């Protein structure tokens, strides 16, 4: 029973499927590139079930909902694997090579039969992906947006609204963009562009590090960090995406005075978890939109994170894989509710005394 494991390689990305944890790690001279599968338990990381040594460094993992399939970015290709029924092996089932050869992929997202891919140069591509049970039959390019961003696309999300389909992207150039992919006969169309500023007079000087979209509410959360090395603050912003042509910021808080690298949301959509570059985790109460707890759990950059039940799993470039309990901190809503209860009891007591004529008329 361990709440922290040394992987012996930098951890680049993690993904949770059912009660299993997939870890992509590697990069650097003399370090092994690996794909590892662990059993997860409440509060601790269990036994290692699979370990594959790879030739190339896996930079990012994304799974396919309701299937035991996942893909990893390795330079200019996405390699897809299925997981055996007994959780004993990864089986390579498909490889999608993106040209040109110098392309470095850093993000992708799968939704239904769509696969969106973003690279380090800001190029955006869309593919049709066909499945046969836990096999990928084909991947065909159906859309392309040249220079979607002028820096890398760090995160991609799909959005469906009134039978229209959109892509939401977050980039290191400081911008988030929404693209219409409803009618691909007209190619991918840019709908809107939004970015974070502390004031209207301030230039967009932030790197959009991560993005989460909540389809039930058409709300997005972004974590962005200043590009100013001397004041590298990180902010969390809540965005209203109900009108895709006019995206509005709703709330913003300063999370850290250091760059933050990743975020994830609990299954009930009540809390966000955020990691920074010096081993600190932050838990955000989304109802109050406030930091409800923060904790120093290491010294190295926490590059990736995922919630598992009420646990928060993180991976660092310092080789550490760790699981921590979601800590809520002090709940001020309880104090507020108690205050209202005391007020109500006071009023009831006053009425009781009045009825029983126990109060002086000048009271």
What does this molecule look like?
- By secondary structure, the protein is mainly β.
- The protein is built from one helix and 28 strands.
- The strands form seven sheets. The protein has a four-stranded antiparallel sheet, with no helix packed on it.
- A hairpin with a 4-residue loop joins strand 11 and strand 12.
- The protein starts with a strand and ends in an 8-residue tail after the last helix.
Characterize this entry briefly.
Helix content is 7%, strand content 55%. It is mostly beta strands and 363 residues long. The protein has a 4-stranded antiparallel β-sheet with strand order 1-28-27-26, with no helix packed on it. Strands 2-3-4-5 form a 4-stranded antiparallel β-sheet, with no helix packed on it. A 4-stranded antiparallel β-sheet has the order 6-7-8-9, with no helix packed on it.
Name the helix and strand elements from N-terminus to C-terminus, one letter apiece.
EEEEEEEEEEEEEEEEEEEEEEEEEEEEH
Number of helices: 1
Mean pLDDT: 90
Class of secondary structure makeup: mainly beta
Shape: globular
Q: What share of residues are in beta strands? A: over 45%
CA distance, first residue to last residue: 65 Å
Q: Classify the helix fraction into a percent range.
A: under 10%
Radius of gyration: 24 Å
Total strand count, please? Answer: 28
What composes the largest sheet? Answer: 4 strands, antiparallel
What strand order characterises the main sheet? 1-28-27-26
């Amino acid at each position: 029973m361990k709440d922290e494991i040394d992987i012996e390689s930098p951890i680049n990305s993690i993904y949770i499927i059912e009660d299993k944890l997939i870890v992509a790690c590697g990069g650097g001279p003399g370090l092994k590139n690996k794909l590892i599968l662990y059993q997860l338990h409440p509060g601790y990381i269990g036994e290692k079930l699979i370990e594959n040594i790879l030739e190339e460094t896996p930079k990012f993992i994304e799974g396919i909902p309701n299937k035991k399939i996942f893909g990893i970015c390795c330079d200019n290709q996405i390699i897809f694997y299925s997981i055996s029924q007994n959780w004993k092996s990864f089986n390579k089932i498909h490889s999608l090579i993106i040209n040109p050869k110098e392309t470095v992929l850093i993000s992708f997202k799968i939704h239904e039969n769509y696969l969106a891919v973003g690279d380090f140069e800001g190029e955006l591509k869309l593919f049709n992906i066909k499945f046969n049970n836990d096999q990928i039959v084909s991947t065909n390019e159906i859309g392309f947006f040249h220079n979607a961003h002028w820096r890398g696309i760090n995160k991609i999300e799909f959005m469906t609204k009134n039978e229209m389909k959109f892509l939401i992207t977050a980039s290191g150039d400081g911008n988030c963009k929404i693209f219409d992919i409803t009618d691909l006969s007209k190619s991918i169309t840019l709908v809107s562009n939004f970015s974070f500023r502390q004031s209207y007079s301030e230039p967009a000087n932030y790197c959009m590090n991560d993005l989460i979209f909540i389809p039930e509410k058409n709300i997005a959360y972004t974590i962005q960090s200043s590009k100013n090395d001397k004041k590298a603050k990180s902010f969390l912003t809540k965005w209203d995406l109900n009108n895709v042509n006019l995206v509005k910021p709703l709330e913003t808080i300063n999370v850290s005075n250091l760059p933050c690298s990743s975020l994830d949301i609990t299954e009930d959509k009540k809390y966000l978890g955020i990691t920074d570059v010096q081993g600190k985790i932050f838990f955000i109460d989304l109802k109050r939109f406030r930091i409800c707890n923060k904790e120093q759990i290491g010294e190295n950059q926490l590059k990736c994170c995922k919630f598992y039940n009420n646990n928060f799993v993180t991976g660092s470039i310092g080789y550490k894989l760790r699981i921590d309990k979601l800590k809520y901190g002090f709940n001020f809503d309880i104090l507020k509710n108690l205050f209202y209860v005391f007020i109500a009891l006071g009023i009831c007591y006053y009425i009781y005394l009045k009825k029983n004529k126990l109060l002086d008329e000048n009271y």
